[in-house]
Amino acid sequence: MAKHGKKYLEAVKLLESTKEYSPQEAIELAKKMARSRFDETVELHLRMNLDPRDANQQVRGVALLPHGLGKRIRVLVFTQGEAERIAEKAGADYVGSDDLVKKIEDGWLEFDITIATPDMMGKVSKLGKILGRRGLMPNPKSGTVVPVSDLPRAIENARQGRVEFRLDRTAIIHLPLGKAGFDSEKLMGNLSAVVEAVMKARPSGAKGQYVKSAYLATTMSPGIKLDLRPTLAMAAAAV
Known about the structure:
It is a single chain. The chain is of the alpha/beta class. It folds into 2 domains: about 5-60 and about 165-235, Ribulose 1,5 Bisphosphate Carboxylase/Oxygenase, CATH 3.30.190.20; about 75-160, 3-Layer(aba) Sandwich (Rossmann fold). Helix content is about 30%, strand content about 20%. It contains 9 helices and 9 strands. The chain has helices at about 5-10, 25-35, 80-90, 100-105, 120-125, 130, 150-160, 185-200, 230; strands spanning about 40-50, 60-65, 75-80, 95, 115, 160-165, 170-180, 210-220, 225. It has a 4-stranded antiparallel sheet with strand order 7-1-8-9, covered by helices on one side. Strands 4-3-5 form a 3-stranded parallel sheet, sandwiched between helices. α2 packs across α8 (about 185-200). The longest helix has 17 residues, at about 185-200.
C-alpha cells in the first residue's frame, strides 16, 4: 500500500467519505486541499460507461478553456513558404519545416502543442513515435492539422487553453481545469467547458449511462467525488 505524506492525510480529513459534492463545493474543497509550495493543477477524472476496445465507443475531442490553464502555452507550427509568415504573425513560438523536424529528431521537445498545415504531414509523420507517445502529434480530428487560412484561429485557440482529451485503456478521461490558485468562478467556467465538450463527443456506440462517475482532484490531493446530476448539467452553462 502506498504511503502518503502528512499534507495528503490532512486533506483526506476534509473529505466526507460518503458525500457526493456539487461542482461549486468540490472546487472550494479542492482549493483548500492544495497546500503544496507550487500552484497545483486542478484535474477532472471521468469514468465512462464505454468499452475502450470497441471502435464505436471511442471518445476523442478538444475543449477550449475560457480562462486558460494558468501557464504559457508554447505553440509550434509545421508549415512552409508564405504560411510561415502568417503563423509568426499569429503568435506561434516556433515555425518551420525540415529544420524543426530535424531538431525534434535530435531530442528537442521544448513546446506544448503542435499545429501543421496538410502539406507538411508527409514530413511530420516520421515523428509519430516521438510526438505520438507525448500526445503532441498533429491530427485533423483534434483540429491541429489545418489549412493555411485557419492558422491564426488554431494558434489563438491553443494559446487560450486548448485541451485535448481521449478515452484511455481503463475507460477514464483525464482533463486539467487550471490552477488551484484560480478564482473559483474561473475554475467553474473551465469545468463547464470541458463537461460540455465531453458530452458533445459522445460516440455512436455508447449505450445507457454515458458517464459513470466523476472526481475532482489537485495534483497532490485525494479525489473528491462529484454529484453527477449537477455536474453534467453544467454542459449547457459553459462560458
